[in-house]
Design goal:
Radius of gyration: 19 Å
Number of helices: 6
CATH topology: Deoxyribonuclease I, Chain A
Number of domains: 1
Strand content: 15-25%
Structural class: alpha+beta
Strand order of the largest sheet: 3-4-2-1-12-11
Protein name: Endonuclease/exonuclease/phosphatase family protein
Shape: globular
Length: about 325
């Protein structure tokens, strides 16, 4: 693997919504072994041009074999013209999207299958979140919030979801999960908060009220609200004024863009970077040196984002922000 080239002046954090997923476990790995997977080439091309220090890929199966193959055969392939990008560290997030509810959530009168999983996933690792980093990830200190029940969220909107009984008492608030991933950068701890909220293609009738509460959980996790309990049973302690970058698929349906931008306002970043509902939001502890977007056909120069948010799509361009202490 190519040795990571580390920046001495700033940290480049990027995110990209992908369609790097298979219908069954192992499908993505087998597809990537061909070295010709179209979506993998698209994603690798954007990463190659941006060369981020940390990249959060949403919609990717959290399959170690697939991730390792993507790094070795697409980001570091000797057979293409891309500039190699090395990532010595990774975190594969597995949340609640593939957990079966035991109820007929999709209304097809059959219990079972992806439509009746809490996040419409066919298996645990499907369409999850993968974080690649040039800097060390403190794996033991990663915090996962994927099992928190919706009815445990303070001031929740569960009552407007039309869910009741055992389903209402059991459903997780997060479509997939929220992960606090500590990165060791230049002697300091940086918190990468990666999340996947309700996707654009979600067909659940309760998607809208749950989406709003998912953004609330992210905010309340940072603030240290007691009700936010991690998957290991620990209560959120808050992150105070530490270096935070909130990123991932926060509002892929355009009606939720304003709510995600409000989260940016809370963090002191009223110019939060977003594209098709995917966000990179550094908190006020950072200086932002630059930001931009790289599409499937990467331009020679980085493009600054327009002010408007385009219509939601399942995959997006890569967006990046350069931040500095």
């Amino acid at each position: 693997m190519t040795a990571p080239l580390l920046s001495e002046t700033s940290l480049r954090v990027a995110t990209m919504a992908t369609d790097l997923s298979g219908e069954e476990p192992g499908d993505l790995y087998r597809d990537l072994l061909t070295r010709t997977d179209t979506e993998a080439l698209r994603v690798a091309d954007a990463i190659s041009v941006a060369n981020p220090d940390i990249v959060v890929l949403t919609g990717m199966d959290a399959d170690p074999d697939a991730v390792n193959t993507f790094i070795s055969d697409y980001l570091n392939s000797p057979d293409d013209e891309h500039t190699d990008v090395g990532y010595a560290y990774s975190y594969l997030a597995i949340g609640s999207s593939g957990v079966q509810s035991g109820a007929d959530l999709d209304g097809d009168r059959v219990v079972g299958g992806p439509g009746d999983a809490w996040g419409q996933g066919a298996f645990a690792e499907q369409s999850s979140t993968v974080v690649l980093s040039k800097y060390p990830i403190n794996q033991p200190d990663v915090v996962s919030v994927s099992a928190l029940k919706w009815d445990e969220v303070a001031g929740n909107k569960l009552s407007s979801s039309e869910l009741s009984g055992a389903v209402a008492a059991s459903i997780p608030v997060m479509h997939n999960g929220l992960w606090d991933i500590p990165i060791e950068y230049r002697g300091e701890r940086v918190h990468i908060l990666a999340a996947q909220t309700e996707p654009a293609q979600s067909s659940y009738g309760f998607g809208a009220p749950r989406q709003k509460d998912q953004l609330k959980v992210i905010s309340d996790y940072i603030a240290g609200e007691d009700y936010v309990v991690a998957d290991d049973g620990a209560k959120a302690g808050g992150i105070d004024e530490n270096r935070i970058v909130v990123t991932g698929a926060l509002a892929q349906r355009t009606e939720f863009t304003a709510a995600a931008l409000a989260l940016g306002d809370e963090l002191g970043r009223d110019d939060a970077l977003n594209d098709s509902g995917n966000f990179v939001i550094p908190n006020r502890g950072w200086n932002v040196l630059g930001q931009g977007r790289i599409g499937a056909e990467a331009p020679e120069d980085f493009q600054l984002l327009p002010g408007a948010t385009p219509e939601s799509i399942e995959t997006s361009d890569l967006i990046w922000a350069d931040v500095q202490f």
